[in-house]
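Exam prep: given the inputs below (a chain plus ribulose-5-phosphate), describe the expected output before reading on.
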Amino acid sequence: MNDKELVAFEAAKLAKSGMVIGLGTGSTANYFIEHLAKRQADEGLKISTVASSTISAMKAKSCGLKVVSIAQLKRIDLYVDGADEITHNLSLLKGRGQDLVMEKLLAKAADQFIVVADKSKLVSRIGEKFIIPIEVIPSAWQMVKHQLEKHGAQGDIRLNAGKDNVAISAHGSYVLDMQFPANIYDEALNTLLNNTPGIVEHGVFYGIASQVLIADNGNIEVMSA
Ligand code: 5RP
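Solution:
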């Protein structure tokens, strides 16, 4: 097992019969889906899942998991997902893809939000390696960009893969990919983005993770909130 699969396998052990389990998006989340499905098949676990993306819902169904709509749920028991960056105080950067609205909804709705990643995701500051994805109401993208530039941010609207139009997120938003000055840390960044009108959601997950499982060459470190 590689490190991503190892932490996903460990997280799948947290599933219990009767649980509603949220499925993240990405390669590590895919391993979690596979191991969850294996436990269901091997042990007869009675679980329902809810997916953070269409691709994860497709994967879960193809593995034999029952997938329910988020619209039917008020809360969930467990959410397991990867991350692009993780700090030692369990702040995360997520949403390199286009599904962060659903990812944050499920992470907040879960009694337990478990992050699974390999050691390459550890950083000392959110924004150290990746740009911050920010989903905006389409008509407001220029105003939001201008507001963020006043705080020293630099970046632009995300284009689609063919670079011939703007990218549209799974939620129907435009996405700004922004870089912030190195002296703006996770808490301040989260507050700024939460308080800027026109932003639908952003990739900074501050104070949400319950636990992070980090794998490093076959060993797992557990970081708790
Ligand atoms: C998608 C995410 C993923 O969890 C993040 O990009 C990590 O992906 P991977 O597990 O493939 O390294 O936030 O929106």
